[in-house]
Each structure stands twice: as structure tokens, then as C-alpha cells.
Target: Heparanase 2 (inactive)
Amino acid sequence: ARSLDKLYNFAECAGLQLILGLNALHRNPDNSWNSSSSLSLLKYSAGKKYNISWELGNEPNAYRGMAGRSVNSSQLGTDYSVLRTLLQSVRYYQRAQLYGPNAGRPRKNAIVLLDTFMKNAGSVVDAVTWQHYYMDGRVRKVEDFLKTRLLDTLSEQINKVFKVVHSHAPGKKVWLGGVGPAWAAGTNNLSDTYAAGFLWLNTLGMAAAQGVDVVLRHSLFDYGYTHLVDQHFNPLPDYWLSLVFKRLVGPRVLAVRVAGLQRKPRPGRVIRDKLRIYAHCTSSSNHNYVKGSITIYIINLHRSRKKIKLAGTLRNKTVHQYLFQPYGADGLHAKYIQLNGQKLVMLDDGAFPELSPVALRAGRTVVMPPMSIGFYVIKNINAYACRR
Model:
């Protein structure tokens, strides 16, 4: 109870919505889910009026390898139905959100599990969750984080999941319920460095472009090397990218067309492999920009600078640039990041520093340095799609 109190209070203070994963491996002799401890937890949480959403288990397709026991997909679907009934029996949680099954990467056994789960319990969950990790955590080379073929695996996985989900429940929301650069807790001096930012921003852009509603990062703190803050609570590069993304990028996705594109891109893949461009309406919660503004974010994986000219109505507007590069001599291995040339660190009082843009005059070419990430807000464009 004390642990839950601390966790919930943290979420409340941070303005976060808490989703609590219940233990799916509490089993009865017939291998059905033993819900007794979960019911106690629900009653305690209801008594505290904790606004919590729920999930059951984590990567059920891997239980045999991780825990030496297995739960087949039909049983898992039944267990989720039991949990939904349990939620409805506790008055405070009758309308609580339920997510699942949090399957692993959609390879053969995970796809079979997801397909059967959707048949038996697709109507029970409010969103279908699954996880994606780009590579084995034992990888040792920074170059592996830069392979365009690797970045594109996410697009293929999203398509597989959507195909299964929508064959049973058209229109059902799909969430990435866990994501990171590498599984097996990630890799020291890679998963927690600037280099991992290319994979992270690629995930956010590609998932949004293909209709994934929510992306949950694994993890915030103290697990392996994929966390967003270090042991002293200092933000790592992916945290700063996430913070600027949340401040500038709204949920409405815009199409990107690039002159001179040599071949038709796959969904979520634009302007050649090593230069990736995504566009959204600017976040409506950012009061520095009026409604109708557009945010473009760009990943440059080339080892040379690239020039990008904004065309049409974009050409004659002032652009605010938020350009990220590694800070210090470690290059891609850096655990510090700079914004428009300034190292990003927390202030002495624990507050965020000012994340100020550089204004580019109207008509100026956008120049992306080698191995850089940039956010560009086109101000006052009054884009029709972003006024609604």
C-alpha cells in the first residue's frame, strides 16, 4: 500500500495518468488467473479514490522463457474478461480503462497470441498494447543505432499489429505499450546516449504517421540503460527530446511531400532513408504559438550537412529552430545534449532551463548539420488543418 501511495503521488505531482500492470502469473491450480490480491488492491485504490487505469501482465508470449510457465492466449483472453468483471464490481472503477495484452514484438508466437486474444477479449480492452525494441541489448556498436533498415523495422511491425487488430475490431485503438532502442535492458554507453535519440524520435514520428495513438517509453528511471533520467535524476538526451516533442508537437499528423523524391516511400518513411521528415500541427498547449502553426521535425543520419528549402506558403514565414546535437567530445556516445549550441542541464533549483529557439528569417534555407535532430515551428501560417 505504501508503495502504491508513493507511486500515485508521484504521478499526480508530475501530471501523469497512472496505468498499473497487475501480476498475470498469480495462478490457480487449473492455471486460471488468481484475482484475490488484485481485488484487494482495487478496493484499497478505490477507497483512496485513485484515478488508475489497468493492464494485466507483460509480454505474455515470453512467460515460458522468462518465468518457466505459460499462459495460452485463450486463457489470457478469459483472464482479461475476469479482470473487466472485477473492475465493474468495484463501483469506483466501473468505467476504468483497461489495456492489453502488452504482447512482445509481433513475431510468430506473439502474432498467434494477439490473434486469439483479439477473438476472445478484443471487445474487453479499450486499447490494444504491444511492445517494440529495435535490437538485442548485447549490441556493442554505435553504427548499429544508425542503420536505416533497422529504423524501418518499426513500420513493418506496426502494419502486422494493425492487420491482426483490425481484422477483429476495426477502429480499435492501438498503443505501443513499451518501446526502447534495445531489449535485454539496453546497452550501456549506447541506449542512454545521444545516438539512441535517432531511434526514439523515429519511433514517435513513424508511430504517429501510421496511426498509433499512444507511445509509452520504457523506462523513466532505474532499469537497465534505456531510462530517460540517470541515477541522480539528471535528464539524458532522450528526455530532452521528449520534452521538446511534447511542447511543440500536437497529435494531428500532416502529410510531407518532398520534391525530387526518387522512389515512393513506405508509410512513415519520407525523403530518402537517412533524412526523415515528419510534420504535425503545433501543440495547442504551447501558448507561444498561435493556432494554425506547424511543427516539422527532422532526423539527419547523413555524415554531411543537408539543406532543406521550405516551399509554397511555408517559404515566406518566420521559422523557429530547435536544433539538437551531442555536447562534448564523446560525439554520438554523449550523455549530454545541446540545443542551438547551448548545453542542456537542470538549473540549481531543479527547474528546467529556458528552451529558447533561434529565429530563422523568412525564406532562409534550413541547414541540418551531420547527425543532428531539429524541430522547426512555422509560425503564423494559419494552416487550415491546424485551425480545427
Observations:
- The chain has a mean pLDDT of 92.
- Residues 20 and 54 are 5 Å apart (CA to CA).
